[in-house]
């Protein structure tokens, strides 16, 4: 399926215009990090947790912000247009961060693959790149990629990926109704799709195979680790001596990967805001060789 870049232009036009005149808002971030990674926002879908995402962007400050793919859901927008003000506000906030000195780097995924036509371009201060190598404060090299190139369904049977995406949207819709009922009963939020992902044997196997494949490619590239998204499953662990980091998503888990000033990495669970800093950390030894940091890979 071909994706028309006009989708993005229509969605972003008013956001760019509004952001240009929105400098008067005073925001005092309560958390500051060296680097932040977020992915799988899926702006343009009812499942996007835009309000929580906007809160996160307002409260978190960083020197570099990586948008690791599936930021705007071109697949869904082609099926049915959905773009509420909250999604516009998220785009405005990202543009504002770029204008105020944060380096924002966008690495397109499969749902916003239309942006891959603009690699090397800069839109409102947001750089578009195919992939990236980032050097942490403690000298580790991390390869950054969305991860869809390691999904056999995407690469070998794209039509099946679209079918799966439609079924996933139905699951999320059912989940919203379920949680509306749970809220009336005074019960906390619960993700049906996340539960199925962790309980269905085939889904668990897919996640494991994906993680191993991405880590194996990172090893081939001579880096210390990899940061990706795509599978909507936040994780931070070592796989055969390679750091595997997945920043999760903003549809189900509301998670981000952050780098502290000393280079320590942590997964932040924004759905547990009161215990935000009780994340998972992992320190790794440094291999002798690594590619040059901060460069775009061919």
Largest sheet: 7 strands, mixed
Distance between the terminal alpha carbons, to the nearest Å? 25 Å
CATH architect. name: 4-Layer Sandwich
- Overall pLDDT confidence: 79
Task: Write down the CATH topology.
Answer: Purple Acid Phosphatase, chain A, domain 2
| Backbone structural class | alpha/beta
Form type: globular
Radius of gyration: 18 Å
Task: Tell me the number of structural domains.
Answer: 1
- What is the tally of helical segments? 8
Number of strands: 12
The strand line-up of the biggest sheet is 4-5-3-2-1-11-12
Strand content: 15-25%
Task: Name the CATH homologous superfamily.
Answer: Metallo-dependent phosphatases
Q: Write down the secondary-structure element order.
A: HEHEHHEEEEEHHHHEEEEE
Q: Return the CATH class.
A: Alpha Beta
Q: Give helix % range.
A: 25-40%
Which stretches of 5+ consecutive residues score pLDDT under 50?
A: 15-28, 153-163, 274-298
Q: In words, what does this structure look like?
A:
By secondary structure, the protein is an alpha/beta fold. It has one domain: Metallo-dependent phosphatases (Purple Acid Phosphatase, chain A, domain 2, 4-Layer Sandwich), CATH 3.60.21. It is 36% helix and 19% strand. The protein contains eight helices and twelve strands. A seven-stranded mixed β-sheet has the order 4-5-3-2-1-11-12. It has a five-stranded mixed β-sheet with strand order 6-7-8-10-9, covered by helices on one side. The longest helix has 27 residues, at 158-184. It starts with 5 loop residues before the first helix and ends in a 29-residue tail after the last strand. The relative contact order is 0.16. Mean pLDDT is 79; it is low at 15-28, 153-163 and 274-298.
